Amino acid sequence: MSGAMTSPLLIVEDDLALQKQIKWSLDRFESVTASDRETALVQFRRHNPAVVTMDLGLPPDPDSVSEGFKLLEQLLDADPHVKVIVLTGQNDQANALRAINLGAYDFQAKPFDPDMLSLTIERAYRMAELQAENRRLQALNQPDALAGLMTRDPEMLKISRTIERVASSDATVLLLGESGTGKEVLAQGLHQASKRSGRFVAINCAAIPENLLESELFGYEKGAFTGAAKTTQGKIETANGGTLMLDEIGDLPLSLQAKLLRFLQERRIERLGGRQEIAVDVRVVCATHQDLKHLIKDQRFREDLYYRLAEIVVNIPPLRARQGDAVLLAHAFLRRFAQEQRRAGLSFSEDAVRAVEAHGWPGNVRELLNVVKRASIMADGQRVAAEDMGLSGPAIGDVDSANSGIGASSDLNLRAAREEAERRNIVTALARTNNNILKAAELLGISRPTLYDLMNRLAIK
Ligand SMILES: Nc1ncnc2c1ncn2[C@@H]1O[C@H](COP(=O)(O)OP(=O)(O)OP(=O)(O)O)[C@@H](O)[C@H]1O
Ligand SMILES: [Mg+2]
What is the CA(451)–ligand 2 centre distance, in A? Predict the structure, then answer.
């Protein structure tokens, strides 16, 4: 069960007699109280209530509603999912509506009817619980279309949900990431999730000489140039009804940038040597490891083209910045190669796992894939050692030595920090032990049921 039902109710009311009365009439809910905005915020941080009832008129100016509205906004800023029930004066519909518009869950006019308020609170709890459960399930679910993308990293999971969400639109997506981070995997996932009936066609702008690239992209008519023996469709046309991936878009020569821009504006192409325009319906996704903004400054990339391409920008983190993914992927790749080479039972030695964790993976997932492949061939017996992978065994590092500092957020929040540390350690332990719950629990010094509980609560699959 998630926290919603077990978190207390926060009652914000400056009239102490009334505060007592509310608390008393709601005695079936565990509650905490506050009588001004500052205290309410402290209580909110401390107890993380799923439901809050609040008076709008709070000191220092209890006759106006400014403190109340300020508090309402601060509460929703701190937790957009919190259910706030505003208690308003009689005949104060304007403020009630304003509160709802700001994001309050409901309102009750004073003097309130205890049964009615109690019912509203109960409903708010149920709603909070359902929504939390929904978010948890959503976090667990990696979209099917991205089945080829293995990850447990929160940032990568967020990216795969973004990809799924934008898939059905025809917005142009720009994938930015170092070499080997999975740009092509994501582009294909985008195509699959889009359910477009045409093909996924990729072209690498860096791999094709400038003089050939134009005909590759736009196609040509018979006789357009020497050697043009028959009319040939270009990649853009081939992708009609589907998705066109322009890989290494940063390497597209300036002359073709102008032509591509025209195509993106008009959605029509003209084959080389052709006389008629052909309408093409294609979803464009671009990728590059280069810094396009930098290329724009150097006048090597057109700014107007950039804005056409960058309708949705996805920044893919390098492997070294993903929590536990290197080891998770290493195990998965080893399983795959062991099967391919009929060497069942291949597994990593402890120093190999440490070496995978410690390595910086400048070539990202592709480098890891190659290293594990090589190791699966080189390994003598059943155990793959660090040296089979050409990685030197590192000094035994601490699980979180790289991450023990205080996070970037200036908003210190112990609960969030604890959750993050828990998540990081659990993901690392699971990766190290190849998802063996018993061993991971041992490594973490907790019982197996506790580990299950934590995984459930933190939505770790
Ligand atoms: N999260 C992942 N899970 C499983 N396999 C992955 C993942 N990310 C990448 N791969 C695999 O790693 C290899 C490199 O990925 P991909 O070709 O998508 O990278 P890229 O970012 O396009 O690289 P480049 O910039 O060099 O073109 C591929 O074999 C791909 O299948
Ligand atoms: Mg690629």
Answer: 37
| pTM across the whole model | 0.66
pLDDT interval class at 64 (50, 70, 90): confident
Q: How far apart are CA 276 and CA 268, in angstroms?
A: 10
Report residue 90 as tokens.
Answer: 């009689």
In this structure, the residues whose C-beta lies within 6 A of any atom of ligand 1 are: 148-151, 177, 179-185, 289, 329, 365-366, 369
Does residue 405 register a pLDDT over 50? no
Q: What average pLDDT does the chain have?
A: 88
Cα separation, 225 vs 397, in Å, equals: 62
DSSP 276: S
Positive or negative CA dihedral for 104, 110, 112, 116? negative
CA angle (405, 409, 410) in 5-degree steps: 95
CA-nearest of 324, 343, 282, 332 to 147 is 332
Rounded Cα–Cα distance for residues 216 and 239 (Å): 12
CA atoms within 13 A on the CB side of 82: 28
Atom of ligand 1 nearest to the CA of 150: 3
Ligand nearest to the CA of 288: 1
List, in order, residues 6 or more apart from 391 with CB less than 8 Å away: 352, 355, 356, 358, 359, 371
CA of 141 to the centre of ligand 2 (A): 25
